[in-house]
Amino acid sequence: MNTSTSASIAKDTTKPSGRRTWRVVDIVVASVIGVAAGVVFWLWGLAWPGLDSLLAFTPGLSGLLAGGWLFAGVLGGLVIRKPGAALFTEVVAAVVSMALGTQWAFLTLVWGLVQGVAAELGFALLLYANWRLLGALTSGALAGVAVAVLDTNFSSVAALAFEARAVYFVSAIVSGVVIAGLLSWVIVRALAATGALDRFAAGREARAVGSDAA
What we know:
Oligomer: single chain
Strand content: under 5%
Helix content: over 70%
Order of helices and strands: HHHHHHHH
Mean pLDDT: 90
Transmembrane segments: 21-44, 56-79, 91-113, 133-154, 166-188
Pfam family, one: ABC_cobalt
Keywords: Membrane, Transmembrane, Transmembrane helix
Number of helices: 8
Number of domains: 1
Radius of gyration: 18 Å
Shape: globular
């Protein structure tokens, strides 16, 4: 692999003190991710009643669906790799979903804000230095914890028996890890492989790994 490319990758991915100033392209792409995710959030909300009924055989298992509203923050963080990216994309997605007419109205923004802070915390705990699978799973897990706390205390889930709330809590975290964390990581790798992320460290890193393999 070219040594100059190696040095560039090391600067982008191993130094927590690396460049953290947002560029115009960061703002644009983060916004696009947020808007696209917001449409998915809205569609996921439309599908939720039917999906929830399929999981009704075990009260609380519907927590497995929570990740469908959590991935925006993790995905945005993995692509932009700047402090605030996870929070920004999750909040934009919540606003778009609310504007499209989600059934939870203004609460969508409240949930989005808390989930975004939690997803952001996942990357912050790793000093904004790990954008690999560990970072994605940590961010997704904390977003799952956030929605689990919110839903089991301030939504219809709070009316369920303790056992069902416990199932929901665990299920939401699992969903955050798998859907928001793992799936977002897979999506970023797939996008990077196409060259769509060449202006970002994620794309350059994938290209460098590909050069090594060759």
